[in-house]
Amino acid sequence: MSKLNVLFAASECHPFAKTGGLADVVGALPKFLKKLGHDARVVMPRYYGVDRTNLKKLPEPLGVPMGIIGEMWCGVYEGRLPNSDVPIYFIDYELFFGRESLYNDANGAGFMDNDNRFVLLSRAAMQLCKALDFHPHILHAHDWHTSAANLFLTTIYANDDHFRDCASVLTIHNMQHQGAFYGGLMNVLDVGWEHFNFREIEMDDKVNLLKAGITHATMINAVSPTYAEEILTSKFGCGLEATMQTRVNDLWGILNGVDTDEWNPKTDRFIAPNYDETTLDKKLAVKRALQKEMGLPRREAPLIAIVSRLVKQKGIDAIAEAIHDLLALDIQMVLLGDGEAWAHFYFGDIARFYPKKFACKIGFDGALSHRIEAGADLFLMPSRFEPCGLNQMYSQLYATLPIVHGVGGLQDSVENYDEQTGEGTGFKFYELNAKNLINTVGWAVHTWYNRQDHFRAMQKRAMRLNYGWDESAKTYEALYFEALKRADKETP
Ligand code: ADP
Ligand code: GLC
Questions:
Q1: Ligand 1 centroid vs 109 CA: distance in angstroms?
Q2: Pairwise CA distance, residues 81 & 47, whole Å
Q3: Which residues sit opposite 13 in a β-bridge?
Q4: Which of 34, 178, 223, 321 could be a cystine partner for 388, CB 3.0 to 4.6 Å?
Q5: CA 36: distance to chain centroid?
Q6: Please, what's the largest Cα pairwise distance for the chain?
Q7: How confident is the model over 169-211, as pLDDT tens digits?
């Protein structure tokens, strides 16, 4: 099979900068494309937190035309994704990216200049290809932050010989965040005001960057098959369902994978002892250590975990409503998360009220998230919508059975428990409300106490699931070739 040059343009990438699953995907998929023989590379901002020690600064600054703002000159640093030789380039523009936080100010509000910041990133991705003399076959944008790149390819760079062989893909990780900004952003995009119309970029009189990506990408994919169907409906389309429907023939759903270099209970450097399916009994020691670390009594009761952004998407409000009923059960809970301020206070209070049953840590802590995935018995993820979700997959590989709302990727990656046969890998409910949440947790807890044979068999089945990236990377490869075909480009 021929070799493709693929440029990933994204706002975050593990381990350099991460607020959620997008970073995990961008940090993993290019490595697996590389294994398939492709030249995959990544470009992202050089945020304040990106350590430059092992990065190489490219000798020439990068000129990035920003329409009415003029040309912006950026530094470029080059590094590698860990455990790979995938190049990653960091766009250095101190005024825009030299901040602790990626998207929001200390009060949780989006930065006022997020429009210019991410248009700069998107345009820099295009300019970088030229500066590196890298001829991409696929420009792969992710979410609204880089979807302007899909637009640039079919407008400003449409007749640019450098991109003669290039088609573009937009991966939708989350339809809720669309990058909607005042119309004047057209002057910065500089693609011509004739594109500011309802079929292309305009939505509610604003520039909608995600919409621009959806209408201009050659191919689009959502991060699970079910989410690809859901975003065509008004319930999940967040107002862009009609736009999505115009592209239904170019829309695929590809389930994310798990980077097993990072998430594998047998080799995980954050847990002790390590375990696998044949040594599952050792998981108990990890649980005891977690109880100790979180200040919970080290006793035998089902330990239910939550690791999440504390936002409405994740069904946090339903957990808040259900919490007293949940804690009436003989269980323990641990929560690690950050997000909306009310949730920080609320769950902090719950922890003080139920010191023997509920422990929480507000903040972002990668190492602790591994210890929680490994140490818990059950993992609660009642998301209102979930494009893919990675934690339920990590949980299953760590023999921590998920309790989920059957939407999006949760529907595609968790098999519901069947009490008759003992089959399944988790516990599902299909309408999100506190009552269903309480009942389903109750069902899981009952199974833990009274159907231990079934519980154990489900844990082993979950650990055997194949959520590696190999398969999904092959599907992305097929998507790329399809994009080249549809854009009428020659396959290399
Ligand atoms: P989303 O991207 O919508 O937040 P995912 O399940 O796809 O949801 O990915 C979330 C990722 O972020 C996982 O790797 C999860 O472990 C991590 N994560 C979420 N919250 C925290 C936190 N407070 N501390 C550490 N890791 C977190
Ligand atoms: C988004 C989604 C999440 C998905 C992740 C990676 O953050 O909310 O469901 O797993 O992107 O694709």
A1: 19
A2: 16
A3: 17
A4: 223
A5: 22
A6: 68
A7: 999 999 999 999 999 999 999 999 999 999 999 999 999 999 9
Are 103 and 111 within 8 A, CB to CB? Answer: yes
Q: Which domains does the chain have, with CATH numbers?
A: 5-257+469-486 (3.40.50.2000), 277-463 (3.40.50.2000)
- At 107, list the tokens: 């009060």
Q: Is the shortest distance between the CB of 10 and ligand 2 below 6 Å?
A: no
pLDDT digits (tens, 9 = 90+) for 294-332: 999 999 999 999 999 999 999 999 999 999 999 999 999
Is the pLDDT confidence value at 1 over 80?
no
Which ligand minimizes its atom distance to the CA of 385? 2
- What is the C-alpha radius of gyration for the chain, rounded to an integer number of angstroms? 23
* 432 closest CA partner among 351, 320, 331, 349: 320
- Taking the centre of ligand 1 as the mean of its atom positions, its distance from the CA of residue 19, in whole angstroms, is 7
User: CA 392, CA 457: separation in Å to the nearest integer?
Assistant: 18
Is residue 307 lining ligand 1, measured as CB closer than 6 Å? yes
* Mutational test site, ligand 2, from 226, 388, 414, max ligand atoms within 8 Å of CB: 388
DSSP state of 236: T
pLDDT higher than 90, residue 391: yes
Q: Considering the entire predicted model, what is its pTM?
A: 0.97
Strand 358-362: give its sheet, edge to edge: 358-362, 332-339, 303-310, 378-381, 401-405, 427-429
CA of 386 to the centre of ligand 2 (A): 7
